[in-house]
Structure formats: structure tokens, C-alpha cells
Amino acid sequence: MNHRLALAAADITSPVAGAEILVNGVAALCDPLGALYLPDHECLVVSDLHLEKGAAFARRGMMLPPYDTLATLNLLSAVITRYDPRMVISLGDNFHDRRGSELMPEAFRSVIAALARGRDWIWINGNHDPDGIFDLPGQSADELVFSGLVFRHEPSLLLGKGEIAGHLHPSATVCRRGKYVRRACFASDGSRLVMPAFGVLTGGLDLKHKAMHGLFDRADLIAHLLGRDRIYSVRFNSLIG
To answer: What is the DSSP string of 60-76?
Structure first.
């Protein structure tokens, strides 16, 4: 079973153990649900929601179970309830295609409006949804810069220090008690952080894939793997290739 779907079906109100890290000197907490919280700024960051992915596939004649948007919004509601952030930043590929936010059912639109009420909400544009959002609260931007951090969708080889990005859906594999376990993960060397995908129907790209080359100082790189109720932090050289 997809780990994100398993989390959506589990008791997501139980206590959790996150991982406290620094990104370019800024304190951050990696949450097992796949969100990042910046306590000094009361800011919650998620990435790659890929809302309405099932609907996007259905428009192309490929039928997927139509429950992904509700499941992803349930997870998002859980982390917002947990931290009650002043600001929410969603790091691109918020919707699975350009038409997703426009065609999204009103029931889901109302859920997002309720979650955003009383908060600043920034939608970073992604490669799947470069035109921004339609008739939803918040603002769209290609990137956001504050407090020594740069929030953008795709990691840049030219920009590393302080970058928090998504797009690559990092995952990692470890061996526990003789069994191989693969999980989505936060990937950070302390200078840059690449977020796990938050959407329940998203796949993952192994942290040792060539697309990750050059993004991190591997001597300092740690994969913070998502568990059911805690984060498992593993150094890069201890991961299974």
C-alpha cells in the first residue's frame, strides 16, 4: 500500500516525533506527515500536493480512484491543526495539471478556504501548474524569499544556500531487521532542503538517482524518512542504493 495512502487512513491525530534540523541556520521541524514547520516564523511548508490528480487522469481516459484530493486535504488539515501556522507555503505542483484548480469541486474548494482562513497562504507555481491557482484564497508566486531562505518549486544547481524546494519527490531505502524499507523523505545537508511530496498519489525518486547529483554535500546529507508517527534520520552513506 502507498505509504501516503496508509497515513491518510491511519489515526493522524496521535502524538508524533519530528526531527529538529537547521536549514541555513533557520530552525525547522520535519513532521512525519511530510510537512515542514518553521517555529520562529509560524510557517508551515508543504510541497507537491498534486491535488485533483485522479480527475486529471480521468480527463485523459485513465481511471484512478477519485479519493486522492480528499485524502491529501485530510492530511493537510491534520498538520495545520497540529501547528496552527500563521503562514502556509505550498511549493508548487499544487494541482496535477493546469485545469485542476479551476475544475476542482466546490466541496474541496470550501475545505481549502476554511484551512486558509486567518492565515497568509502562498502558492508557489510548479511545472504542472505554472499559471497559478483559480478562485482560491492566497497568492501565487514563482518563488518567495525571506529570512535567508528561498522557497521555490524546482531545486537549482546555481542556488543552494537556504533553498527549500520540492519537485523531485525524494525517497530513500534502508534495511531494517533484514527487510528493505523505502519511504519518502526530507533531504538536507543543512544548507539546502528538498521536500517530500505531500500528495497521496505521488511517487518518489531515490536520493541516489542522478537527478539529485550536485544538489547536496553528500558528506553532510541526511535523509529524514517519514514513518507512521516519527521521522527516521539516516545519513546518506548508510542508505541502500
So the answer is: TT----TTHHHHHHHHH
| Percent of the chain topping pLDDT 70 | 88
At residue 11, the pLDDT reads: 56
**Residue 40 in grid coordinates:** 520562529
Global model pTM greater than 0.90: yes
Res 65: pLDDT: 67
For 176-212, the pLDDT digits (tens) are 788 899 999 999 999 999 999 999 989 899 999 999 9
- Sheet of 36-38, strands arranged across: 19-23, 26-30, 36-38, 43-46, 87-90, 120-124, 139-141
Please report how the helices 68-83 and 106-116 are oriented relative to each other, as an axis angle in degrees rounded to 10.
10
Angle at 81 between CA 75 and CA 84, to 5 degrees: 130
The strand ranges marked E within the chain are 19-23, 26-30, 36-38, 43-46, 87-90, 120-124, 139-141, 143-146, 149-152, 163-165, 170-176, 179-188, 193-194, 205-206, 222-226, 231-235
Is residue 230 packed enough to be buried (19+ CB in 10 Å), middle (13-18) or exposed (0-12)? middle
Could you give the domains of the chain? 3-236 (3.60.21)
Identify the three-state secondary structure at position 40. helix
